[in-house]
Amino acid sequence: MTDFLTIALPKGRLLDQLDSYLRETGIHLSFEDRRLIATDTDAGIRGFLVKNSDLPTYVHHGIAGLGVCGEDVLYESGYDFVRLLRLPFGRTRMCMATINQRAETLLSGRNDLPKSVVELGIDRLLDSSDGRFSVSTKFVEFTRDYFHRAGVPVDVIRLNGSVELAPVLGLTPYIVDLVETGSTLRANKLSVICELKQIEVSIIANPAYYKLNHARIDRFVSQLSESLKIDSGN
Amino acid sequence: MTTHTRAILDQPTGTEGLYLEDAWRHRNTAARLGALLEGWGYLPVNSPMIDYHDAFAGLVSSDLAREIYRLIDREGELIAIRSDATLFLAKHMARFLRPEMLPLRVYYSEAILRHARREDISRNEYFQIGAELVGSTGMAGELETLSLVLKALDSVVPGRCVIHIGHRRIVDTVIDTLESQNRQYCLDALKSHDRQSLRRGLAETHTRDEAATLTRLLTTIHGQKSFRELTHRELERLPSGLVNAVRSDVDHVLKLCDILEQALPLLGTQLRSDAIRVDLSEFGSQSYHTGLAFRAYVEGAEASVASGGRYDSLYGHFGIRSPAVGFSIMLRRLERLSPMEPLPEVRVVLADSTDFLKQLAEAEGQRREGDRVAFSFATGEEPV
Lengths: 234, 384
Description:
heterodimer; A: 234 residues; alpha/beta; D-Maltodextrin-Binding Protein, domain 2; 35% helix; B: 384 residues; alpha+beta; BirA Bifunctional Protein, domain 2; 2 domains; 8-stranded mixed beta sheet; 3-stranded antiparallel beta sheet; 13 strands; 17% strand
């Protein structure tokens, strides 16, 4: 067993944002020349660069003790993790969207977005021809659980990308997807009709790894939260 | 390749086979731990492999419920396949347990069947060895249980385990102060050690200072001495009613840890006192836990290797009011971390059909001396 704390980091924008805060706490993980593993010997930490959707798997199996991951990906993984710290960046929204014409009908008379499908009105979502309600999404676990908690029977179709096509081509009238700026939706003549959940990015840990290394991990989280100027809850 | 390729090459999830050296090591370790438990006065038991699913209604956590394999028997009854040794054992033992038999010490060493996702290879655990001390109400029984689990783990992975000790009633007492709609939120936050959410949830009912104090109390992992200092310093920040309600359980945990630390050298383990930690986020994974709750961890294992605690109402569910305390070791997870012992040497005696009786007598003589003896057949042995 190594003496380094191990952390899985997601490729992409999130890493760039995180890296500057890590540097403020004195941690320098340099993934140059397409390397996927970087070590800061002085800080005693080793980072693995992994695909976002694979990150929970690496932490769950204990290959990386820690990880940085969005709630959307964690939810789909179904694994249990220790939630160490919610980060103040990388936030996004899990939303339901449909084609503009339908959205206008559903939201007519409203000035704001409904905060839940119940508020939106479940009966209005159902397809009038067969009384069914179907959604395309990458986030099938989240979507199924969300609508079941709201008491809505739902048919969920899994797509792996370009989810916006589903209502346009007639696969399903609705989609559930992450929305940041909404520009992709607008480009495809779609509109958000309901915000289902705020999605945050957290530092997570494998539960056993945390229990065995809690002092070092708490110190690391404490340093990082100071650098981020956020309250870790301690 | 035939269309049966998957059936031939793959294995349904929820179980595993053990072969050769791996099976030998497993049986050897289980036998060693069995001998340890028998040395402490525990008798072996075997619980049924299947039982009526309805018997466990209300006792199974949602996590465990998802893992249970069920089937319909020929009379149309819903049957559960053994997925948790403690539950099955409690139901079975309650049928013959009588007050005059208590306290009763039993141990099990048996396979369980749990659904696991095919792609999740990390926590597949299909064998449990554990012990139950039925009829013990006090601290002595809990100390016996904790001592045993530490000694058992240390015998397989010397000097490497730590034990995190919590108490279900402390958590329940805090949670009971909250509005009902907020309780599950805070329990989930505590389970995932999510301090930010826990503090937010507690602050719905308590002041910010109280919520912060409770969060520290419930989520900080301590040695016995530093936990004593923390409680001495911080309990006075809480409402007196809450302090009075948790005080005796907090003192109970402290005393348990204190005595256990002193017991380590007597147990002959290689563990140091820092292997014993107070961790109130350990409040028992199953709904039947009522008091002491603990888990043990070993560096290199991606999940806990043992868990246990007190469950004073479990046997009552099956018709006999009796407290109980016990533990379960996930043996396969532990075995993978222990060094592979060399297989015992096997002597070879040549054998053939013409002189078999003489060779058999020779081999039997050596076996009586304690040797392991195998026949070796000459190549070119005549086919039958």
